[in-house]
Amino acid sequence: MSFISRGFKGRRRQEGISGRVPPGQYVTEDFPVLSAGPTPQTPLSTWTFTINGEVDAPKSWTWEEFRALPNETITKDIHCVTKWSKLDTVWQGVSLDVLLSEVDFGVDYLTAYCDGGYTTNLPIEDVTDGKAWVVYGFDGQPLAPEHGGPARLLVPHLYFWKSAKWVRGLELTRDDTPGFWESLGYHDYGDPWREQRYQGD
Amino acid sequence: MEHLVEQALVAAPHKRLVWQLGKVVRVVPETSRTKTLVLEVPDWPQHQPGQHLDVRLTAEDGYQAQRSYSVGSPPEDKHVAITVERLEDGEVSPYLTDELDIGDELELRGPIGGYFTWQASQGGPLLLVAGGSGVVPLMAMIRHRAAAGREVPARLLYSSRTFEDIIYREELDQLAQDPGLEVFHTLTRSQPEGWAGHRRRIDSTLLEEVAWPSQQQPHIFICGPTRLVEAVATTLTELGHDPARVKTERFGPSGG
Ligand SMILES: Cc1cc2nc3c(=O)[nH]c(=O)nc-3n(C[C@H](O)[C@H](O)[C@H](O)COP(=O)(O)OP(=O)(O)OC[C@H]3O[C@@H](n4cnc5c(N)ncnc54)[C@H](O)[C@@H]3O)c2cc1C
């Protein structure tokens, strides 16, 4: 389609970042908040992180145990389906490689589940080999509740709804099972570089 | 809070969302900073009140920008209306409010979003809390409620900076002549002389006054800047409302 919006000039991207911003996205300095309902309040004393589903033996960590796992500081660009991208965000957390190495499994998908009932689905291929983390720090501070604290998933190469807030565990599954937004018309995979925003994109 | 998931699963199967052209048939100035664009969209699938659409602007050299706008019109209308607040140094909103005119075309696709929605058939009571332009998707619900002729009790608590910033003010006054709809305004920055409404940010006392008790299990929709949405959602949960009945939407950057 070659429709031109009469009189639209637009704000061109700054030099140097153009290769980092996927189609249809704009860069923001703010950190917008997006969620479907109230921010859950889970005390750390009862917080756990669990890997279950199609695994030989489920594995669970308390907050203390989780914080004692080897962690890293990661700097990544993030892309939200509501059109904003934020560059060079700095996170602290545990690689999913570390977590998944604690269970034996032979399946290809997972569903991340969260306080508040939110879920999202991911191919395991997309969360291994240094591609995903469970993060509890942002910009050197504990992750704020409205941004998903105490801990959220970080899968920066996919649209940010895949980086589920308030994550409490991973259910490993044989099939790719649509999660919350995926069942409401959003794309199953969500690659920002291919603009996979909605089903059928 | 299993509800969140169940609701997602009952959603209808999805058709591919294609870009299409809407034609501006009417422009309505709402406040000094907001305008409603009424669009004729030939292939618009009926939306649910609360849903939004995506707008895509293309410059002559092919440069594109996309943004989301809530649909303010009810599904019963034959046209699709969006209401846009002009942000001073914004890329898209000043184009929509200042440049676009009757007869111009606008590329869009939708409707999008199936969680922040309400249909009259779901019943009530309905509690709507808005800050600024966050009133737009809630207005679609209010208009739909009126068009559907259902006697669902509804309350809108609407926070604006000043009297002049109240979007849809006269229409809300008219709609509120229906005793089933109560509209409560609060003005946070300044109030005209003799203002009888509230005059502070929405806090827990104000919510207790306006909201139905949690036992009545209202459907709750909150839309506006993040700070307002966070505060109101948290307070309502503290007042005993089931988090699964509290649905939120935020509009973006500093607002969101
Ligand atoms: C689901 C959804 C529904 C929406 N519905 C509506 C709607 O009905 N009406 C409406 O007007 N907008 C709505 N928005 C917001 C809209 O999509 C744009 O973000 C908004 O119009 C700003 O775009 P812009 O290109 O003009 O500004 P940008 O170029 O994106 O931003 C310009 C500057 O303004 C700042 N800024 C951005 N947003 C705000 C804000 N809200 N308050 C203060 N400063 C800000 C930015 O940080 C930036 O510095 C909605 C957003 C979403 C995600």
What this model shows, in words?
Chain B: One of its GO terms (molecular function) is oxidoreductase activity. Chain B: InterPro entries: Cbr1-like_FAD-bd_dom, FAD-bd_FR_type, Flavoprot_Pyr_Nucl_cyt_Rdtase, FNR_nucleotide-bd, MRET, OxRdtase_FAD/NAD-bd, Riboflavin_synthase-like_b-brl. Chain B: This is Flavodoxin reductases (Ferredoxin-NADPH reductases) family 1. Chain B: Residues 17-118 form the FAD-binding FR-type domain. The complex is a heterodimer of chains A (201) and B (256). With 201 residues, chain A is mainly beta. Chain A has a single domain (26-194), classed as Alpha-Beta Complex (Sulfite Oxidase, Chain A, domain 2). Chain A contains 3 helices and 11 strands, in the order βββαββαββββββα. Chain A has helices spanning 63-67, 96-100, 180-183; strands at residues 26-27, 48-53, 59-62, 72-79, 84-95, 109-114, 119-123, 133-138, 141-142, 152-154, 167-173. In chain A, the strands form 2 sheets. In chain A, strands 1, 4, 5, 8, 9 and 10 form a 6-stranded mixed beta sheet that branches. A 5-stranded mixed beta sheet of chain A has the order 3-2-11-6-7. With 256 residues, chain B is α/β, with parallel strands linked by helices. Chain B folds into 2 domains: 4-112, Elongation Factor Tu (Ef-tu), domain 3 (Beta Barrel), CATH 2.40.30.10; 120-251, Rossmann fold (3-Layer(aba) Sandwich). In chain B, 21% of the residues lie in helices and 30% in strands. Chain B has 6 helices and 11 strands. In chain B, the strands form 2 sheets. Chain B has a 6-stranded antiparallel beta sheet. In chain B, strands 9-8-7-10-11 form a 5-stranded parallel beta sheet, with helices on both faces. In chain B, helix 6 (226-238) links the parallel strand 10 and strand 11 (246-250). The longest helix of chain B has 14 residues, at 135-148. Chain B is globular. The structure holds flavin-adenine dinucleotide (FAD). Flavin-adenine dinucleotide sits between chains B (52, 67-70, 82-85, 87, 89-93, 133, 136, 249, 251-255) and A (26, 28, 30, 82).
